[in-house]
UniProtKB/TrEMBL annotation:
Annotated coiled-coil segments of the chain: none
Protein name: FOLR1 protein
Family, similarity comment: Belongs to the folate receptor family.
Organism: Origma solitaria
Residue ranges constituting the Folate receptor-like domain according to the UniProt record: 15-190
Single GO MF annotation: signaling receptor activity
């Protein structure tokens, strides 16, 4: 039994999900760009993906952050960080789930985000503007990039997502879960960390695996 448990556990650690831009297995990347640099020692993303993660309308998903007017930089950095975590982190194994979409076989679900990461995201984005609660689906893609669906009203984030939990849990259809765990507790995933101190998410993945 123990061996079986160990094998299952190990299959959840240090892995890349089967999705659109992920490498098949994690490994060092000499040059990761900008905010993705935290993962350069062991990454599921390539340098090219990390660079595209910073583009306003990157070829990664043709997704436009500025669909209701320009997103403030202090808000955008959280979305860039969220993209870096999603594309680059080899520590999301315990939350990888099957996905039934044409563009990826796997997705993440209920990743326990540290309270501070979620609150800061909400804080910095409350005056940004959007027309949708769930950014995974329901857009008008006729132009090749996402536009607000007919009849959807552009409003500030604080009205669309009245709490930090609403933002983190709803925007990517349940990819993240809001927690009351704090950074450094070993119980929640950090979107941001100081790579000089090592990657705290390794221990978190081990705990949940």
């Amino acid at each position: 039994v123990t061996t079986a448990v160990m094998v299952t556990r190990d299959s959840l650690l240090n892995v890349c999900m089967d999705a659109k831009h992920h490498k098949t297995e994690p490994g060092p990347e000499g040059q990761l760009y900008g905010q993705c640099v935290l993962w350069k020692d062991n990454a599921c993303c390539t340098a090219n993906t990390s660079m595209e993660a910073h583009e306003d309308q990157s070829y990664l998903y043709n997704f436009n952050w500025d669909h209701c007017g320009a997103m403030p930089e202090k808000c955008k950095r959280h979305f860039i960080q969220d993209t870096c975590l999603y594309e680059c982190s080899p520590n999301l194994g315990p939350w990888i789930d099957q996905a039934d979409t044409s563009w990826r076989k796997e997705r993440i679900r209920d990743v326990p985000l540290c309270q501070e990461d979620c609150e800061q995201w909400w804080e910095d984005c409350q005056d940004a503007v959007t027309c949708k609660v769930n950014w995974h689906k329901g857009w008008n893609w006729t132009t090749g990039t996402n536009q607000c669906p007919k009849g959807a009203m552009c409003q500030k984030f604080k009205f669309v997502f009245p709490t930090a939990a609403a933002l983190c849990e709803q925007i990517w259809s349940g990819s993240y879960r809001y927690t009351s765990h704090h950074r450094g507790s070993g119980r929640c995933i950090q979107m941001w960390f100081d790579p000089a101190q090592g990657n705290p998410n390794i221990a978190v993945a081990q705990y949940y695996a």
